Amino acid sequence: MATRNGAATLPRVLDAYCRLSVPADGWRLLIVDNGSTDGSGELIASYASRLPLRCLHEPAAGKNRALNRALELVLAEPDADDALYVFTDDDATPHADWLVQWQACAQAFPADSVFGGAILPDWAEPPPDWLLALIPTGLTYGLTSPSMADGPVFPGLVWGANMAVRRAAFVAGHRFDVAVGPNGAEYAMGSETELTRRLALLGHRARFYGGARVTHHIRRHQVEIDYVLQKAWRFGRGKFRQDPPGRFAEWRRVPRWMWLRYLKEMLAWARAALTGDVGSKFSHRWELAYLRGYFHEAWRGSLPARKTVLVTSYSGELGGMELRMAQEVRYLQAAGHGAVLAMRRFAGLTAWTQRLAREQVTVAEFDPPAFFEGNWRWRDLRRWRAHWFGGGRLRAFRADLVHVAFCWTTYGASLLWLAQRCRLPTVISVHNAFPPARFTAWHERLLRQAFSGVRGVYAVSASAMAHFMAIYQPYLPQSARLAVIPNPVDVERFRPSLAARLQARMRLQVPQQALVIGTVARLAEQKRPALAINLLAALRQRFPDLYLVLAGDGPLEATLRGQAERLGLTPWVIFTGFVADVHEVMPALDVHLLMSRNEGFGIATIEAMACGIPAVATDVPGSADILRDSPAGTLIPAHGLAAAVVAVGDLLADPARRAAMGRCGRDVAVSRYSNDVVGKQVSAFYDGLL
């Protein structure tokens, strides 16, 4: 617990601790004296002989700062990750079986990470009945309803006077937010709920357990009207800080719908005042105080000084570009910037969002009307809608810079134009080698507007940059920064490993002595997976124990299964479906194929190289940038199967050559494409643009 001038309530609380039943594994009490001036420190010290007690001192005011100080101490000591850290207040008196109940709860629900216990009131002066009927006692006094049933609970209902969190959450780096909670002055509420809600977004489950009980002392002044309204105002301030940006269109940093709600509450308050309805009048005063607190924090609150980048695109599926966009957010966060990933909805977005949330990568849905991409009817109407509706949503993200990823020739231009209309500077990343394009006068005018705010462009390959500049150089400001920054690979996850190879083959049910070729790619026309099946058919006579792994999903899956069946290859073609953890599949291969008709870069190629697997790819821009004159793999003609049959066959027949290629590929992946190397290039690109 943290205490600041708690001498009035601490004796009763610490006496109750002396009467606690001792749980089987023992317990420790850590109190942080948060700059007390009323003798609290001496009072706590007087209990040192009666309790397993340690007192720390944190002079800077702030409950969360004090709790973080305690966490740094206990996390430096060895302990199990499922150990339970129980948090409470200096005016919360525990029942005698409190810790025994918490231990029983932790053992009974090992899959849960965040727990809230029962908090009962200890009124210094009983409040009027009408007051309790009109206010949220949880928000106002941190109490839990006696009717709350044990079980899963919304994490925002876990209150700080009686909550528990497993050690693992803090080992992962999470701490209390020092910008909210009691700090010795006027403050924004949300001391504990900011943490519990953040943990819930990352997959930590919350549970209410009524068996662990404390009694929370409510002082006389805390039942007065002014105090209750002040708490509503503080709640509004905390709500602003906890609301993620970009959820709603805003006006003057406040969601538009909230302005309407404020007007309605004002009218309802006036009506209640005229009719003499005292209860209704107070209810509306509470709502108005909450809204004013939200407005106050939006306009006058101290906001983070760091710059924020919104990473977005006109995307329709989860592929290499989307994975790179998520990596961009990680790089920006590592450099100390704020970053949000904003995407159109597509199949698999929800599951991907949940995986990214575990890494504290925020994904928001953002789908303003597109007017540039495709041949839209009523495109000027769509542009008008994008301006008036999409613009408000874009500004709501409160970004300082917008990063627009171009997946194809014009796919991203609408977002670029919208950012310019919102007076937000932009950078562009180019993820493919675009074919030549011709624009109408209508497009030309909008392109000049859209590109006027561009501060920099980077492409994932030299070929992608050359194709992009051939189209867009006339519209690009001369001051724009240009760079080629390849896609990265996690060389710690993707690495040569005999154990990983054996496990991958067991998972795929492939004989350990078999030869395996494979493709990690979307089952779509661009990747031409049908060629890989034809290649298998051509090589089967020479290599009867040869298998093909197609790792990915896509619109061609049914067609490809039919092709394998017609060729009599069904037992030797393995369809994995979508693979979230590619590093668990890639080691099974002897040769990786990427037979695309076009590529921006080819992430799967460098993932194979990092695993020490020879890479074979068609000689197209993107893949050629990686493998041209490289000892790590070989290029084959983009059209025609005969050369591919010879090249891949020769590799399969020469284990020593494959091993040499694998060693070279690993060296290249580490020195040129590792996260550390590419991350430094990204950081240098943004340097000075934010």
Describe this structure in words.
- This protein is of the alpha/beta class and 690 residues long.
- It has four domains: 2-223, Spore Coat Polysaccharide Biosynthesis Protein SpsA, Chain A (Alpha-Beta Complex); 239-300; 309-386 and 396-473 and 680-685, Rossmann fold (3-Layer(aba) Sandwich); 498-673, Glycogen Phosphorylase B (Rossmann fold, 3-Layer(aba) Sandwich).
- 41% of the residues lie in helices and 17% in strands.
- The strands form five sheets. A seven-stranded parallel β-sheet has the order 14-13-12-15-16-17-18, with helices on both faces. Strands 4, 5, 6, 7, 8 and 9 form a six-stranded mixed β-sheet that branches. A six-stranded parallel β-sheet has the order 21-20-19-22-23-24, sandwiched between helices.
- α9 crosses α11 and α21 (603-610) crosses α24 (655-672).
- It is globular and about 90 Å long.
- The model has no long low-confidence stretch (mean pLDDT 91).
Features of this protein?
single chain; 690 residues; alpha/beta; Spore Coat Polysaccharide Biosynthesis Protein SpsA, Chain A; Rossmann fold; 25 helices
Quick recap:
The protein is α/β, with parallel strands linked by helices and 690 residues long. It is built from 25 helices and 24 strands.
Mean pLDDT over the full residue set: 91
Number of helices: 25
* Global geometry: globular
- The side-by-side strand order for the widest beta sheet comes to 14-13-12-15-16-17-18
In CATH, the architecture of the largest domain is Alpha-Beta Complex
Protein name: Glycosyltransferase
Pfam families: Glyco_transf_4 (PF13439), Glycos_transf_1 (PF00534), Glycos_transf_2 (PF00535)
InterPro entries: Glyco_trans_1 (IPR001296), Glyco_trans_2-like (IPR001173), Glyco_trans_4-like_N (IPR028098), Glycosyltransferase_grp1 (IPR050194), Nucleotide-diphossugar_trans (IPR029044)
